[in-house]
Amino acid sequence: MGNMYNSVLRTFITKPLLDVMQDGITASASIKIGAESFPLGEYFFQTLFLRMTGAQEQKMKCICWEMATNDYAYRYDLLHNRNYGECSNYTDKNGIYKDIVCLIKEMLPSFKVYQLWEEEKLDDETLKSERAKWEKKIIANRKKQIRKNIEVQEKENGTSLSQDAKDKITANIMNKAMPEDDYAEHLAGIKKQKVVSSLLDDVFSMLKTANIIHWKEKEFDIYKDNYRKKFKGIQVTPKDISILGNQLQKFYEDVVYVHRNRCAHNTSSYQFNLPTLNTLASSGNTDQNYFYRFTMLIIIDEVFIRLYKRYVELKEQDEQ
Q1: What is the pLDDT of residues 9-19, one digit of tens each?
Q2: CA 177 and chain centroid, separation
């Protein structure tokens, strides 16, 4: 029974939110898009958005409970020292992200988050090009270090160094082995950008043929022109302690979390401090866009799926 229960949970956790969005798009396919259906549009978008953010919140809770089931120390910490609530704001999601990373490192101390992306394949030409760029950067940094070391020694000695002394400093720095761990992280960063780019392609490809975009044509046009600028791979898992970079953290809180609360608690039906028409028309308000919200949730989901799979893989190995 326990194994079957775990199987159901794991299937749920690893089902991409992209599939949830596709389910919503499919369900809307039979709706006739005309003036008579426009009042339905906002209701539909709120419903799909809540299904996606709700599924993600439930995934977070399921992950926490599985980790608490496997690790009693973590269970105590979760119940007494954590307050993840609905797992809806960035702080809560990032806290769970750090928890998974911490428990993975207990099983595999050498683990780094960038390793999540290493399995992606790059063609030989890209590998060769990236190696050349990386080595060029390393050599440039070493030359800077050589100049700095020479300047420091000359300042300490109060006189210019001989050419032999300069050659010795140069040889000591330039003859060091290339830091291959650094290259592995660099390459993983390229692979991560490839994954994020592919994910963005999947989202856009799914949306561009959906009839729901006709309810939000202006929003979709803005999204189409800007989504690659908004969601850059470098802003995803920039550190082992951050699921998102500073730019996307703020974007999540302002665009996703605030609207999640507005929809979940139906506050727009009774609050009077709503945005004015001038605010809604301003260029700064263009981020308030359902297509951005869907994409942000899907990117976060991809990270958690990869982390969770690695956790489960290591846990099963640990139990053998």
Answers
A1: 899 999 999 99
A2: 33
pLDDT at 264: 87
Q: Do 21 and 205 touch, CB atoms closer than 8 A?
A: no
Tabulate helix, strand, coil % of the chain (nearest 5).
80, 0, 20
Domain ranges for the chain, please list them. Answer: 2-112+209-319
Q: Which two tokens stand for residue 71?
A: 């690790």
What pLDDT score was predicted for residue 302? 97
Judge contact between 299 and 196, C-beta under 8 A. Answer: yes
How many CB atoms sit inside 10 A of residue 248's CB? 23
Indicate the burial class of 126 (C-beta count within 10 angstroms; 0-12, 13-18, 19 or more): middle
Q: What is the pTM of this model?
A: 0.89
Residue 93 has pLDDT above 60, yes or no: yes
Phi and psi angles of residue 236, each rounded to the nearest 5 degrees, phi first: -105, 130
pLDDT of amino acid 1: 43
How far is it, in rounded angstroms, from Cα 278 to Cα 283? 10
Tens of pLDDT along 177-233?
999 999 999 999 999 999 999 999 999 999 999 999 999 999 999 999 999 999 999
Q: What CA–CA distance (Å, rounded) separates 320 from 313?
A: 11
State how far the Cα of 204 lies from the Cα of 216, in Å rounded to an integer. 14
| Cα–Cα separations (whole angstroms), residue 71 to 30, 44, 85, 229 | 48, 41, 20, 40
